[in-house]
Design a protein that fits this description.
About 20% of the residues lie in helices and about 25% in strands. The longest helix has 11 residues. Helix 4 packs across helix 6 and helix 6 crosses helix 8. A hairpin with a 2-residue loop joins strand 5 and strand 6. The chain has two domains: about 40 residues, no CATH class; about 190 residues, Glucose Oxidase, domain 1, CATH 3.50.30. The strands form four sheets. The chain has a nine-stranded mixed beta sheet with strand order 1-15-13-7-9-11-12-4-14. It has a two-stranded antiparallel sheet with strand order 2-3. Strands 5-6 form a two-stranded antiparallel sheet.
Length: about 270
């Protein structure tokens, strides 16, 4: 009798305070990109727990200790998260853009496909031609609701400045091509779907072409799609033949939400 073995691969980075090994001149990044976390241990909440159960005293608690808790100040784009169309623009496909709580949940559990773009250099634009070449190499044809994950290996530089500044990204044309294949959810192991901002800004200064600005995200104005950023462990996945579960936290009217994506691989 054949037994099915299932392997789970965590595709998320931790949410934590601080961005790691940043030079002093880049510490300003922590203000907008780092969580503020206050951990309350079992001693910190004794008075709160006692007041929550009228008539008890600390001596009635196991070892005189209460519950632990944690207080966070955090943006929805910190840590591994999923962007909704509302993040890109107020409208998508001529209608009001959906917020993260409005994502059809059937988008969030489907077949996964990893496109290995590790041959691309930092700042390179990933085009539809690049995508099609990789698909041809792995002998896979995209189908509607496939979840496409772009592997750059940028996650290997997590906690360094390079994580934020050196990786390739998908532009408007490549994004639109994926959506035209019926793809609704995409993801990347880099800190952003687009190329790093400094590459886009440099090209804009040289050309004054405003279409270069945040072009991968702004593709969502034309075609509705959702994107995950700050994934990890894509190098531990096969090109296809696995499921992805990536249900975002349901935050009412939010532009994004944290997600704990998991790849599910059946091994026989």
């Amino acid at each position: 009798m054949m037994t099915t073995k299932i392997k789970f691969v965590d595709l998320s980075l931790e949410i934590k305070e601080g961005l790691g090994d940043l030079p002093p001149e880049f510490k300003y990044l922590e203000e907008g990109l780092s969580a503020k976390i206050k951990h309350l241990d079992h001693k910190d909440n004794i008075s709160l727990m006692v007041s929550s159960f009228p008539g008890i005293s600390p001596e009635n608690l196991p070892d005189g200790l209460a519950w632990a808790d944690d207080l966070l100040t955090i943006g929805v784009h910190m840590g591994t998260h999923m962007d909704a169309p509302w993040h890109y623009h107020p409208t998508s496909e001529g209608k009001k853009s959906k917020t993260i709580d409005e994502i059809p949940i059937e988008y969030c559990f489907s077949d996964g496909v990893v496109l290995d773009m590790t041959h691309k250099e930092s700042g390179d634009l990933i085009s539809s031609k690049d995508i099609q070449e990789v698909l041809q190499k792995i002998k896979y044809t995209l189908k509607p609701l496939d979840i496409v994950l772009i592997r750059t290996d940028a996650d290997k530089f997590w906690d360094t400045l390079k994580y934020w500044t050196d990786y390739p990204g998908v532009g408007r044309e490549g994004t639109i091509w994926l959506i035209n294949q019926g793809v609704k959810v995409v993801g990347t192991d880099a800190s952003g779907w687009d190329r790093p901002f400094h590459f886009q800004a440099k090209e804009f200064r040289e050309t004054r072409n405003k279409n270069l600005i945040w072009e991968g995200h702004y593709a969502g104005i034309e075609r509705e799609y959702y994107q995950m950023e700050k994934l990890t462990n894509l190098d531990k996945l096969p090109p296809y033949g696995f499921k992805v579960s990536c249900f975002p936290i349901k935050i009412l009217k939010a532009s994004a939400a944290w997600v704990r994506p998991v790849a599910i691989i059946e091994k026989f």
